[in-house]
Amino acid sequence: MIRTLRRVKLFLPVVPVLLAALALVILVGAIGGIATAKPNPPGSSAGVACDAVTGQAGGLDPAQQRNAKIIAGGAMGRGLGTTGAAIGIAVALAESTLFNYANDGTPTLIGSAEGRQLNDAERAVTRQSLGYPHDKVGNNLDSIGLFQQRPMSGWGPPQDLIDPLKSSGIFFDRLVKVPGWQTLPPWNAAQTVQGSPSSDGGIYRQMYDRAVVIVAALTTPTTTLSPTLPATTTVDNEWCAPAGLRGSPAGAVSLAGGGSAAWGGYSNGQIPANALCPVPTFPTLLLECSAAKAFDQLNNAFKAQFGQNIGITDGYRSYDEQVACRAEKGSLCADPGTSNHGWAKAVDIGGCCGVNSGAGAAFDWLTANAATYGWVHPGWAQPNGSKPEPWHWEFESIS
């Protein structure tokens, strides 16, 4: 809102110098306030109203539920109300059925704006989305994420568009710039933002009533928390939790690698395959996506030095696999539900060049260089540690 100043006559005697000094102080303060005020960056998750979306919407699977809460929480936190939330969810329903889509860069469609297929460089940019957590994989042009936003169209880089919090923020940043969006038919406001082939916003109109029902359910609390007990984070509200607490009750400490080990709101050994990524040189083994990418880079450097892959014998270990491992190998395997392999951030390396022996040139090279790529040999697994395992390496400090 633009403020207007109104001139007020002073009828009391005043000292002109005092007035001038007072005006100078006010002017400097105002300028200082303007200079230091910083807007939120595009797509910022600041102001997400976690406590406004504590209900549950029927007919959605856990991934859809989580994504709907992110969108609605972002709208409510920005003061866009249930109408803004419903517009966002209607768009995501129409564009992606509320699933967060990565893109494998294999489309054969011809873009209406470009009049051609994607070139190799554009496909490579699109494929970057595969390196981040996602629900499903598609190949609609270079469209990515819940809102099917396109890097080529200036929506942002893949790492932002595949992040539900950021992509929702980007959508709402544009929605509030639509003149009179609050009074437009909701689907017309959505169409103005998205610019979809459905020129009248028909695809969003078809989803709007359902979106209204979803928002109503999410904004209706279904549980009452005790005032003396902390709330807990779960698979569908972990996006609101501090990073170190994701996947664990608030204030609790994980028994398997500390708070930093948990991610995505998943429990140990309960991470779905579509949230993980294969290690490119060992595609049958899955890891958290950043860990998989980093290990591949480490392996390439190792191969350049020794002419062979490091080799991996074990990566992500599901809860059932942890049970089987414990039954077969006893104390060599952690209690089920506590293994660092259950966070998809640990590997057991193979026997190439004696790299898993705890001695020799290959092992020494790995010890000296692995940290450059984010991989570490935890203290307990080192030769003088409490449980020497020269084959066990972890991504980041999760032990």
Task: Explain what this protein looks like in three dimensions.
It contains eleven helices and eight strands. It is of the alpha+beta class and 399 residues long. It has two domains: 50-218; 273-395, Muramoyl-pentapeptide Carboxypeptidase, domain 2. A four-stranded antiparallel sheet has the order 5-6-8-7. Strands 1-2 form a two-stranded parallel sheet. A two-stranded antiparallel ribbon has the order 3-4. A hairpin with a 2-residue loop joins strand 3 (277-279) and strand 4. The radius of gyration is 26 Å and the shape is elongated.
Structural class: alpha+beta
Tell me the span between the first and last alpha carbons. 52 Å
Number of strands: 8
Q: Percent of residues in helical segments?
A: 25-40%
Tally of distinct domains: 2
Strands in their spatial order, largest beta sheet: 5-6-8-7
**Helix tally?**
11
Write the layout of secondary structure elements.
Layout: H1 16-36, H2 62-77, H3 81-96, E1 101-103, H4 120-127, E2 136-138, H5 158-161, H6 164-175, H7 186-194, H8 202-218, E3 277-279, E4 282-287, H9 289-306, E5 312-314, H10 319-329, E6 346-349, H11 361-369, E7 375-376, E8 392-395
Summarize the structure.
This protein is α+β, with helices and mostly antiparallel strands and 399 residues long. Helix content is 35%, strand content 7%.
